[in-house]
């Protein structure tokens, strides 16, 4: 075999192996189609032998092969293909508007006015909408949202975010420690990049929960950082045990310098809400081992279960006082993609930096400046979330009605989905205390596990593909988020509107019963 053909064969095996192991690659390509002939491939400046290996390792479950197949099925249905279902239900991703959630009127009115300023005085908009639009436009260069802003965001909006945090926590916030971003994901990656170096010859390690939101595992792979997974305790509603943090850290010290700890609260994909006591113990752990805390708090408005309450890490840190308040370094993250807003496509978010060394913060802002600025429409949405209509203002009553309706409906759907899965044979699902997802565990017959092995797929990936092909329901296998060996899960959103969610759950129950019977013979 020629060197070129050996190279092509190697790429094909590599990509097929990645897809089979986890079902979690962003894009699965056909090497024969995408790379062309072996001769063409060998002549390329970039090829499989010199491509950044970190990019090859990168996986992102929520937009992997299952989602690609779901899109193909949608096209097949549009062309008249006969299938046992009429539509694809995308329960794989937390995209509220794609699942039928209506936009918040106040936000869209402000966006309309800043986008087309000439309608401010002609469109019959409430006075508070017009005033907000004028304020934002005045803060933009050239009074246009088409202009660049400061790299870390418009000062007016950063000040409004600081005021939001002060109201939430009851403690001061410095607007200069607020950095706006194109969604929380960009901000998280910006801070992760600060750890891209070695300590005493070892790569930097970041502790992340298992299960976790795949942004973290993907970004760690992309940046060549060491992933240090700690297991959440499913038996205690996905609780976070300090003994497990200690175990995971000790294990990771053998291969890397552990420097940071990621906590997702409320949890994705698990839906748990940490107690204040649990947060205090996590802060003490971070202080003891000198770890930087990433507090992923994008679901802070999404808390449903009775007795559950959101506490920000910043608030708890401040109220613990002593060395914790002054010494523990923290970056907290918020997004307009979640909560009651669900404006995923507008890409707005922010981070607050706490106790970061000034020279480090300055260099972080310098690095962010290379990306110019977050979208001004995303920043506008952030402003509407950080400073919503106040009681007595014209937009307040409608804003409150819409916000309450969204959160009340999500509350009901969170209960509906957990109750349904817990009634299904072979399933167990913890209470969805918050966020937008359920992460049920399910049992698989031995013959199904064997069939998955023969198909070159993880068992939960095999199950999820069968579910998609037979019902049109798209979920994300638990192996894409991480799970204890020998257990099988999947993540599903609670976002389908109530009627569609009930339909989805009814179809799911019928499928699982049929699947179990088929593979138990």
Can you describe this structure in just a few lines?
The chain is α/β, with parallel strands linked by helices. It has helices spanning 3-22, 31-34, 38-42, 53-57, 65-78, 105-115, 127-139, 155-169, 183-192, 214-223, 242-252, 276-288, 313-320, 322-327, 358-369, 376-386, 396-423, 446-454, 459-471, 498-519, and strands spanning 89-90, 178-181, 198-199, 202-210, 226-231, 257-264, 292-296, 330-335, 349-354, 427-428, 437-438, 441-442, 473-474, 476-477, 490-493. α5 runs parallel beside α19, α8 packs parallel to α16 (376-386) and α17 (396-423) packs parallel to α20 (498-519).
Could you outline the blueprint of secondary structure elements for this entry?
Layout: H1 3-22, H2 31-34, H3 38-42, H4 53-57, H5 65-78, E1 89-90, H6 105-115, H7 127-139, H8 155-169, E2 178-181, H9 183-192, E3 198-199, E4 202-210, H10 214-223, E5 226-231, H11 242-252, E6 257-264, H12 276-288, E7 292-296, H13 313-320, H14 322-327, E8 330-335, E9 349-354, H15 358-369, H16 376-386, H17 396-423, E10 427-428, E11 437-438, E12 441-442, H18 446-454, H19 459-471, E13 473-474, E14 476-477, E15 490-493, H20 498-519
Would you write up a description of this structure?
The chain is α/β, with parallel strands linked by helices and 521 residues long. It has four domains: 3-60, no CATH class; 84-99 and 404-519, Alpha-Beta Complex (Aspartate Aminotransferase, domain 1), CATH 3.90.1150; 105-145, Helix Hairpins, CATH 1.10.287.1970; 155-375, 3-Layer(aba) Sandwich (Aspartate Aminotransferase, domain 2). The chain has 20 helices and 15 strands. The strands form four sheets. Strands 2, 3, 4, 5, 6, 7, 8 and 9 form an eight-stranded mixed β-sheet that branches. A hairpin with a 2-residue loop joins strand 3 (198-199) and strand 4 (202-210). The longest helix has 28 residues, at 396-423. It starts with a helix and ends with a helix.
